[in-house]
Write a structure and sequence with these properties.
The chain is of the alpha/beta class. It has 10 helices and 11 strands. It has 2 domains: 137 residues, 3-Layer(aba) Sandwich (D-Maltodextrin-Binding Protein, domain 2); 104 residues, Periplasmic binding protein-like II (D-Maltodextrin-Binding Protein, domain 2, 3-Layer(aba) Sandwich), CATH 3.40.190.
Length: 293
C-alpha cells in the first residue's frame, strides 16, 4: 500500500468518527427538556391558590366581568358572621341566589351600620343588603325592588299583663315602648312619637339586641320588633321563653338592596330586579326565609 493510500484511509476513518460523534450529540440534545427563555418563562402568581381563592376565581369566571362588593352589617337573623367568619343569614342567602340569577359574583364585606353610608357613597362597596327606604339618600344611590317585608309586633316579658290590644290606648295608659331607630313605624306610633305628651314614653334603641335587653331589664313595658328577629336573638342569647310575642301590630316595612349607580350599570340593576321578581313569583325567597325561621 502506498503512502497515498494510507493517508486516504486515515482521513476516511477520521471523517466517519466525527460524523458518528455529531449524530450522538444531536440525539442527546433532542432527548433533554428544553429550558424556556426569559420571554417564554411561565408566569407565577404571588397569591396562594387557597380554596377560597379558587372558589372566587371560579365564580368570577362563571359570571364574566360582573363581580360586585356587597356590604352587610350584623343584624341577626338576616345577615351576621358565621362561626367560620363568613357572611350568613336570610338576606345573604337571598342575595347570593339573586346575584347568581343575575349573572354576577359577590365578594361580601362586613361594614358596620355607622360606616355604610360613606362606604357605598364613595364606592368602596358596590351594593348594600338589608336597606330600608329612606336610608342613605345621597345622589347616585338607587334601591332595588323590595325582596322581603318585615313586620313589627308587640313583644313583652312573658306573663306580663296587657289589658288592651290597641297600641294607642296602651300609650295613653302610660305604657313605655321600645323602638328600633332603623325601623319606620306606621300610625298610630309615628303620630304619638311627635306628641309632646307621650314622646318620653318611647325609648329608641340602636339595635334589636339593645331593644330586647331594654325589655328584659325593665326599662320598657314592651318593644315593637320583627318576630323573626326576636326569636333569633332569644335562641342565641339563651333567653328563650322569657319574651312573649303578642298579635298587636305596628306595621310593616319593605327591605331592599342599594346600589351605587357609578359602580353598577343600569343593566345589572335591572337583572337583579328581574331575579327578585322571579324568586318571589316561584316562592324561592319564601323558602329561604322559612329555612331560617
Amino acid at each position: 500500500m502506498t503512502a497515498q493510500h494510507i493517508l486516504r484511509s486515515m482521513a476516511l476513518i477520521i471523517l466517519v468518527s466525527g460524523l458518528m460523534a455529531c449524530q450522538q450529540e444531536a440525539q442527546t440534545n433532542a432527548s433533554a427538556p428544553e429550558k424556556p427563555s426569559a420571554d417564554q418563562a411561565t408566569p407565577t402568581s404571588s397569591e396562594p391558590a387557597t380554596p377560597s381563592t379558587k372558589t372566587a376565581r371560579k365564580s368570577a369566571s362563571n359570571s364574566g366581568s360582573c363581580i360586585l362588593a356587597a356590604g352587610w352589617d350584623e343584624r341577626v337573623p338576616f345577615h351576621y358572621r358565621a362561626p367560620d367568619g363568613s357572611a350568613f343569614g336570610v338576606d345573604i342567602d337571598i342575595l347570593s341566589s339573586v346575584a347568581e340569577r343575575a349573572g354576577c359574583a359577590l365578594r361580601y364585606r362586613h361594614v358596620p351600620q355607622n360606616q355604610q353610608s360613606e362606604s357605598i357613597e364613595t364606592g368602596s362597596i358596590d351594593l348594600l343588603v338589608g336597606v330600608y327606604e329612606g336610608m342613605n339618600q345621597q345622589a347616585g344611590l338607587v334601591i332595588s325592588d323590595a325582596y322581603r317585608t318585615q313586620t313589627y309586633d308587640l313583644h313583652v316579658v312573658s306573663a306580663s299583663p296587657v289589658h288592651r290590644d290597641d297600641l294607642e290606648m296602651l300609650i295613653k295608659l302610660n305604657y313605655d315602648l321600645g323602638l328600633n331607630k332603623l325601623y319606620q313605624y306606621e300610625e298610630p306610633i309615628s303620630a304619638l312619637r311627635g306628641d309632646l305628651l307621650h314622646k318620653s314614653q318611647f325609648i329608641i334603641a340602636d339595635s334589636s339586641s339593645q331593644n330586647v335587653d331594654n325589655l328584659l331589664n325593665g326599662e320598657v313595658d314592651g318593644i315593637l320588633e320583627d318576630p323573626m328577629v326576636v326569636r333569633a336573638i332569644a335562641d342565641r342569647s339563651l333567653i328563650e321563653g322569657r319574651v312573649e310575642h303578642l298579635e298587636i301590630n305596628a306595621g310593616t316595612q319593605d327591605v331592599f338592596l342599594q346600589f351605587n349607580e357609578s359602580k353598577v350599570s343600569a343593566d345589572v340593576i335591572e337583572r337583579f330586579n328581574q331575579a327578585i321578581a322571579k324568586m318571589k313569583q316561584n316562592g324561592e325567597i319564601e323558602q329561604i326565609i322559612e329555612r331560617h325561621s
